[in-house]
Amino acid sequence: MISQTKKINKNTIQLKTVKKETVLGTLKRDYQLWIMIVPAIIVIVIFNYIPMYGIQLAFRDYDFTKGLTGGEWRGLFYFKQFFDSYLFADLMKNTIFISLATIILGFPAPIILALLLNQVKWKRAKKTLQTTVYLPHFISIVVMVGLLNVLLSPNTGIIGYILTAAGFGDVNLLGSTKTFVGVYVLSDIWQHCGWNSIIYLAALSTVDPQLYDSSKIDGANRWQTIRHVDIPALIPTIVILFVLGMGNVLGTGFEKVFLMQNALNLPVSEVISTYVYKIGIISNQFSYSAAIGLFNTVINFVFLYVVNALSRKYSDISLW
Amino acid sequence: MVLLSKKSLGDLCFDLAVIVLCTFVFLIVAYPLYFVIIASISDSTLVSTGQVTLFPKNISFFGYKEIFHDARIWTGYKNTVVYTFVGTAVNLLFTLPAAYVLSRPEFRARRFLMFVFVLTLFFNGGLIPTYLLMKGLHMTDTMWVFIFPFCVNVFNLIITRSFFEHSIPRELHEAASMDGCSHFKFFIKVALPLSKAVVSVIGLYYLVGHWNDFFTALVYIRSNDLQPLQIVLRDILLSNQVFSQGAGSGGAAGGYAQQYADQIKYAVIIVSTLPILIVYPFIQKYFEKGVMIGSVKG
Hints:
Chain B: This is Sugar ABC transporter permease. Chain B: One of its GO terms (biological process) is transmembrane transport. Chain B: InterPro entries: MetI-like, MetI-like_sf. Chain B: Keywords: Cell membrane, Membrane, Transmembrane, Transmembrane helix, Transport. Chain B: It is a multi-pass membrane protein. The complex is a heterodimer of chains A (320) and B (298). Chain A is mainly α and 320 residues long. Chain A is built from 15 helices and no strands. In chain A, α5 crosses α9 (180-204) and α14 (272-282) runs antiparallel to α15 (286-315). Chain A is globular, with a radius of gyration of 28 Å. With 298 residues, chain B is mostly helical. Helices cover 74% and strands 0% of the residues of chain B. Chain B has 15 helices and no strands. In chain B, α1 packs across α15, α4 (71-103) packs antiparallel against α11 and α13 (229-237) crosses α15 (261-295).
């Protein structure tokens, strides 16, 4: 009996040492690989994971002598402050409205454009068109908003002039609470629709030509070919991009909204991300701002998770 | 016979619709861009009264002349060029080797590390903790804040990893390691030269990202000497600080400048976008390739 336990012990010890050696062995074998990846790991840990650790700030009073995590514990105080603030309803409404409008109008646009481009048989025309529609994507947001400002300005902009000439009177498209979201969404489509169509074009280029031939033999016209061959070929790409887009529902682009804001459109243009910036960076209310930011991130993540789960259930396509 | 001609009539209508729609799309996208160009060299009074539509009128280069004298724009330009090139070099230096490692099947930790990287796409600390970290690291108000934070973009990392994984035959590494080739050597002598496509595509993504970066400077930079072009552009285009202290001085010059403010704005848009417009035709052919590489399932 005793000898047996001894034997087992001996065996396990041996097993352990063998295992240890392999770990060491792979480390030794792959040391060059580790050297190549360690810089990237360090950067990601410092700039992505340390701020995650710093989320505690949302539950503490920020004390600049004690750093990110040294202040006094306040629990959900700052979250309550946000939910109770008179701005909460407006911020939520604006953020959700702008995001949903961008998704509902902006999401189908590149799909339609890709289907259209795919129908252009004349190579040179297709190329010219593609070159043109990709271009605005490379214009910076500042220039884009600057462009909107000079074109839409009611006194000196060309579009303002056209609207006046057409009898709409002096409409200030950028300074009106009614038109802000429209201008935001349409200009976004103008800028990114072409670029976003590339991925659908790539998916369309992988369609088996035999499918087109056989649909022709079956007597399908070109519209029917689009409906029954092209669109089904795009479905997986569409679902994945839709899930990703929904995961960002509250993540409405800070930069463009921030740059388009002015005193007149503020009631509809103040969104969570711009508010976080103003409260945190400009007014130095770090804990309050961190709490709002965390609330935003969590809602985003929940959205992503739910949409992904639904997508997996109904279409078998999911991110994870 | 009747059926055949009917079908071709339908096709004809379809083609016509395609042509009409395409022309519409082309004009909608191209005209505003063209308009900015002609407006930048036309008399601004004519522009604002809608008389400049197809060709520039009363051509003058006043806007460009003013820009040429403005010190802020040149400082911004210089800063942006430095941040863009140094930044992109650092991006590639960190991203490429890491992507190579993550593509090696014998690398034990690769699944775990991939998870560590990908998680950051869905969850982050948010603006304030990041801001305080940068402050703690004394990176605010230095040029390093443009270079090191986020110098590994996880999307680009995944694209590059997929490329290494699918386009570099496994046998190649086996053969090379048989001959005693180390990973360093294989990466530099074999993997990189075979991956020019993906290197140029993610290099381009990084380059454009740095050139257009506005947020970093807005949050982390206070000093005027460090402002990149985008911040200067914001001041001119949106805050209407059109050369108030620019060429000549005194109230009269100020009023004079105000009168031509719009022409200057159009010219500023052209000048700041020029580098991208120049490079654009040369890089355009890589776009589809880039997205194809990115869409390879990994």
